Amino acid sequence: MALIDKVPGDLNLFIGGMFTLRRRDALQQANITHVLSVLRLPLDQDLFAPFKHMVVEVDDVEDENLLEHLPATNRFIQEGLDGGGGVLVHCAMGKSRSATCVVAYLMHKYNINVSEALDQVRQARSIVEPNEGFMKQLEMYGQMNTPDNIEETPAYQRWVYQREVELSRACGQAPEAEKIRFEDEHVTDQTPSFELRCRKCRRPLATSQFLIPHTPTTMFNNRTNKPPSDCAHYFLDPLSWMRPELEQGKLDGRLECPKCNTNVGKYAWQGMQCSCSEWVVPGISLAKSRIDESKKSAVTEIRRPPGMNNL
After folding, report:
1. Which of 24, 32, 104, 253 has a beta carbon 3.0–4.6 Å from 70's, enabling a disulfide?
2. Which domains does the chain show, CATH number per domain?
3. Is 101 a catalytic residue?
4. Which one from 91, 198, 257, 274 is the annotated catalytic residue?
């Protein structure tokens, strides 16, 4: 395997590890003008003196957020290529972090999926293997259509919120109030097919696009040898009418209809087991016995701004 590996195609794009930087003759022959370092290590700045240099300080661990840096690394790579030079993307071993950035660039430039981009990079460097967390981020990046501004993308915002919930759960705490994402306060392009109403007062509580699907297990109960019962809950995202309860910082509690104060459900940030035996984390649910489901009218509804009693 060469110490400086060129991604196949017309691009002067290269991938490698730290030792690649010491191949001065090879770098000069490849006309390298830009170097992207994707690692968190003390770097010998003398190695980068001839080049325009960008550093993304991330560790090669699955819970590292490399996704947020991809638009910037794409721009840096494109800048180098547009200037007529070559671009070297490296991490410690040229295997995971650098590969993730190169794959993301190819996805963005050529509108290809993760597998196609990864196969192309492996033709240059067979050892590349983004860790599982980075692979999931690349898949999400593709699903978001490789946007130039990730932070404004609802899917990314939701992903960051889920990470915050997981971190809080690992610490045995509820998420901080300002970090809870109330889904109905964000624009959605989905059209609800039905809504859920309080059975007592008929107050609308949720619509279909805020439900969290979960797959009931097909395993039998070991003690009774009977299949699990049907789901008794609707699991859903946090909604703005729940704000007074969810922002109290409690790990779990009950949810009351904001109109008639009837107990309509419960929540548990650490997760909840449905009657079908499936675990949902976090668990925010409405009890089917307290809720009526009704189809939405075909008439187009006007979505009200946040804070105006949205569902």
Report:
1. 104
2. 5-147 (3.90.190.10), 183-295 (2.170.150)
3. no
4. 91
